[in-house]
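Researcher: Here's a chain I'd like modeled. Treat it as a single chain, no partners, no ligands.
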Amino acid sequence: MISGDYKIINKKGRIAIDALTSPIEEFFFDEAFVVGSHKTENLGVERIIINLVANPQVRAIIICGKESFGHYAGQALMSIWKNGVDKEGKIIGAKGPIPYIENIDAHVIHRFREQVIYIEDMIGICDVDAVHARAQEIIERNMPVFNKPALNVEGMGKKKSARVVLSSSEKLTVAQGLEIDPLSFKIACKL
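Model: Modeled as a single isolated chain. Structure tokens:
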């Protein structure tokens, strides 16, 4: 699993609880594998997928808590599970401004959609008792064990767009005769 705002509760749990932007501590549940949060419709969704395919026991997710303003992170997670992504990596049906998956391959998304058999949309619901009651109902369904091994996604998915990282001694030429100093952010005109 990769780092993030989550806590593993029960290594044998088959459900994950995504508290979105709400404090995760409020939603800790003894039967959940993990309780975590995410705030963005791109990197946050990618991290959830990577972490869940690393544990094939997880078969269900509850998305609850306060939605991230303007990003619709919970809605994006629901959309990628329901619809997948298009050829450009855009989450089909996501409402956020930048719902693009750039760091994981299509087969990882397919694996996530195959492994997770149920997502409960409780977006906006912050009533911990209601979330825990719903989690218990889902667990009692006796979801079957997923018959594939853990999928390690570490080191996967090169960025589709190259990023330039400048050291303190380099200047970026933005146009003929114009440079930006990365330390001071001053624009210099070289004529």
